[in-house]
Design a protein that fits this description.
Elements lengths: L5 E7 L4 H4 L8 H8 L1 E8 L5 H10 L3 H4 L23 H7 L3 E6 L16 E3 L14 E4 L7 E7 L8 H13 L6 E6 L7 E4 H4 L22 H9 L5 H31 L6 E7 L20 H4 E2 L1 E4 L7 E9 L3 H8 L14 H5 L9 E6 L8 E6 L2 E5 L6 E4 L17 H18 L2 H4 L15 H6 L2
Length: about 475
């Protein structure tokens, strides 16, 4: 009988596909080698631009409007925000019940109790999420705003110690303890890094020429055709010079290069213990980071853009094609749980909105069936809503309290020209709007779908457009 695969899932923060893709300025040799062993998706999308909603989607296979984790778990009281045990099935619990030894090390932020045993994890330690780097160099990027505490954005740690990330240490310890056991394992290593502040170990940032570090094409865009909240957020970073942005971006990439080195360390452990060939290794992130795109840093408010929503997804291991850059198919973070269960020959998550992309990994798929993606945003503490729809190269952002956005990503990958108000693009606008309503209805987002009341009619076309889109 064929031995079931084990799974090593590495989840990082604030990492967009642009940061590890083939044309990224960040140096990630170990992730590049992992991609050579498997499939790297160019167009994987998160469901939400902040951590907790996206992570809850990963674990449940549901959109945030269904699982209810609409803000970061630590920012709201439980009465407003929680996903208690038993409300939804986490795919890890199905693996544990089927005999996989499950372990989780690092950042959780999926719900508020921190009792991971209630969600399918036999062993866990969430205290190891940080590496605790400090900006000891005199050069730092600090944002100053009247009435707010100073905010450290970037710096360099010049301590003499060679850093090791405690989440990877814990994962490696687990792998060594379980390598000889007959049972398969499911191990998650989850880091806060490269979350802001971007504090890079000196030995890693020294690999970059800061003075010549590339800047994003949209850095100095005025964003006059975007929602007013984007221009408000731009003011937060308006005093940063081009050299400041270069330093910030180099520190970010230095931090990511450090994490890449830790990926190499845990992959070496798998190889040393003889488990590399029978282990599915997956690398992804909950969301990306603007890193200067449209003059913004970090993520969340005012950032429905590719830098934040387009995330990495690398899958390598038994049964997966090797050396494939998958550019034609759109997948989502909420597809990952169903895919893992499928690759392990287990029953699917019955309530999941996501679907298995196993056929893509094996090269048996029809690309025409993988041309759509969808995301939601609830404004964090500001509580405003957005819905984001992708179909092929088109992208539509519904912002009922602001300005809708429409982009042809094949012609405008940096989202610099909003076509939503252009009469020449009325047809794709209405089509994408219809796709949005259709998706809302499919996933049960009925609060927004049932918005026929007079003052709620802010979309280019209303919910009935879902029926028209179905007839196309």
């Amino acid at each position: 009988m064929e031995r079931p695969p084990s799974i090593l899932l590495i989840i990082v923060e604030h990492t967009g596909q642009m940061s590890i893709g083939p044309h990224s300025p960040c140096q990630t040799p170990h992730l590049d080698r992992l991609s050579e062993r498997g499939v790297r998706f160019e167009r994987c999308y998160t469901t939400n631009p902040i951590c907790s909603p996206a992570r809850a989607s990963l674990m449940t296979g549901l959109y945030p409007s269904a699982h209810g984790m609409w803000d970061c778990a630590h920012t709201q009281r439980k009465e407003w925000l929680d996903v208690p045990a038993g409300r939804f099935t986490h795919f890890a619990s199905l693996l544990r019940d089927a005999g996989w030894r499950t372990a989780y090390f690092g950042k959780w932020h999926v719900e508020q109790t921190g009792r991971l045993e209630d969600f399918g994890w036999s062993e866990y330690d969430c205290s190891v999420q940080h590496c605790r780097l400090e900006a000891t160099d005199s050069r730092k990027i600090v944002v100053k705003t009247d009435g707010y505490r100073d905010f450290l954005l970037a710096g360099i740690d010049r301590s003499s110690r060679a850093p090791r990330h405690p989440a990877f240490d814990a994962g490696i310890s687990f792998l060594r303890r379980t390598s000889s056991a007959g049972e398969p394992f499911f191990c998650v290593v989850s880091t806060v890094e490269p979350h802001d502040p971007y504090i890079a170990p000196a030995e890693y940032v020294s690999r970059y020429d800061i003075r010549r570090f590339p800047l994003p094409a949209s850095l100095r865009d005025a964003c006059a055709d975007k929602p007013e909240v984007v221009r408000r957020m731009q003011k937060v970073f308006a005093d940063l010079t081009d050299d400041d942005w270069r330093f910030l971006r180099a520190c970010y990439c230095g931090t990511l290069s450090f994490i890449d080195g830790e990926v190499g360390r845990i992959l070496a452990c798998l190889e040393e213990t003889g488990r590399l060939d029978d282990t599915l290794v997956i690398f992804t992130s909950d969301h990306g980071d603007m890193l200067g795109g449209h003059g913004l840093a970090t993520k969340g408010v005012g950032t429905p853009y590719e830098e934040v929503l387009n995330i990495p997804m690398i899958v390598a291991g038994p049964g997966v094609r090797k050396g494939v850059e998958e550019t034609a198919s759109l997948v989502s973070i909420l597809d990952l749980g169903p895919t893992i269960l499928d690759l392990c020959r287990l029953a699917p998550l019955s309530s999941a909105h996501g679907r298995s992309f196993r056929q893509i990994l094996e090269g048996r798929h029809n690309p025409d069936q993988w041309q759509d993606a969808y995301a939601e945003f609830f404004g964090q503490r500001f509580m405003y809503t957005q819905r984001i729809v992708w179909h092929r190269n088109w992208k539509y952002v519904f912002s009922p309290g602001g300005i809708d956005e429409l982009y042809d990503l094949s012609e405008d990958p940096h989202e610099r020209r909003n076509l939503a108000s252009d009469p020449a693009h009325r047809e794709p606008l209405l089509s994408m709007c219809g796709r949005m309503w259709k998706k809302m209805k499919q996933i049960g987002d009925m609060s927004l779908f049932n918005s026929h009341y007079a003052v709620l009619r802010t979309a280019p076309a209303g919910p009935l457009a879902a029926e028209e889109e179905s007839d196309r």
